[in-house]
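Thread amino acids onto this structure.
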């Protein structure tokens, strides 16, 4: 196997010997610096079959409580750093992530409630980096229902803008709608790699 590889690579080297280097243009689009449009972000989320609500700051506690009640959620994970005021009206049991529940324990919960690091209007994507109110990656992947609160100021125009805000050394999870996949016949199946239901509260 190794000898065959060496022979092939040697032939490639001989074939390209003396060929001048070609500069490949890399005119990648950079950050625009413009804020993301809430309406576009909302539209993209709905395209992905996510449930979306736009509320003001004062309306967050009531909307969070109502969403969980409509879901019939009795036990939900709430990571450290999630604003306590936003759960003031919640009647469901709030399960902390310290000490970290096992995957089986997370799977038995009715959902998870988080914030995010940044959101992308153009693609309808929510990005989490395990910061305050977000918790570890398993929290947003194991429970079947994810309720995420996104502030308007966290919404950027495009992916380059999001990348400019993020720390590449942190564990990044990019979420574009509920988890879904399809087989060769394009039969859509949801909930395979993450939550079957994504609900987003945009605080405008």
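Threaded sequence (204 positions):
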């Amino acid at each position: 196997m190794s000898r065959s590889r060496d022979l092939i690579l040697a032939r490639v080297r001989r074939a390209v010997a003396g060929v001048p280097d070609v500069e490949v243009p890399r005119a990648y689009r950079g950050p625009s610096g413009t804020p993301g449009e809430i309406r576009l972000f909302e539209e993209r989320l709905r395209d992905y079959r996510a449930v979306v609500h736009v509320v003001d700051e004062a309306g967050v506690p009531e909307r969070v409580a109502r969403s969980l009640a409509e879901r019939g959620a009795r036990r939900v994970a709430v990571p450290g750093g999630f604003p306590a005021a936003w759960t003031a009206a919640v009647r469901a049991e709030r399960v902390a992530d310290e000490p970290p529940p096992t995957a089986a324990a997370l799977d038995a919960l009715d959902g998870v409630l988080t914030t995010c690091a940044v959101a992308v209007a153009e693609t309808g994507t929510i990005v989490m980096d395990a910061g305050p109110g977000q918790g570890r990656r398993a929290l947003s992947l194991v429970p079947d229902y994810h309720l995420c609160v996104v502030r308007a100021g966290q919404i950027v125009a495009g992916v380059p803008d999001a990348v400019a805000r993020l720390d590449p050394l942190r564990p990044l999870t990019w979420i574009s709608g509920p988890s879904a996949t399809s087989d060769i016949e394009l039969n859509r199946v949801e909930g395979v790699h993450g939550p079957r239901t994504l609900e987003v509260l945009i605080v405008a």
